[in-house]
Amino acid sequence: MKFEKLFKEALEARKLSYSPYSKFAVGAVVETKDGKLFKGANVENSSYSLTMCAERNAIYNAMMNGYKKDDFVSLTLVADTDQPCSPCGSCRQVLSELFPSDAVIYLSNLKGEYQETNIEKLLPFAFSKKDLD
Ligand code: THU
To answer: What pTM did the predictor assign?
Structure first.
């Protein structure tokens, strides 16, 4: 799917953000092979560490609708940043387990600037299930 469509959907997701503490709204959308889009936005809590990021909410949303790692083709992230918004370390770790290593990840901002990457590039040498064997 074209970035423009994914970006529009990520902006819609961002509107669902619950971020009264940071006032930093983030939107994300996961695209599946069969063309479905699953939204996520950051959801904060007065006990700050309980906050859930947009990327993780989007991927968990897709999974709760029956989709798995191999079904995912892209993830798009948007926030009001100078440079295209970069995912936090926790989200990178989760994506390294639940998202295909070479699936497209679009980092973007409200100006519509974007950068294409993947989780292999964002988190090389990730700790994984294999390390537990
Ligand atoms: N946030 C995300 O949703 N994704 C990221 O990758 C970075 C941070 C959220 C968490 C918190 O609600 C707010 O942005 C400020 O850190």
So the answer is: 0.97
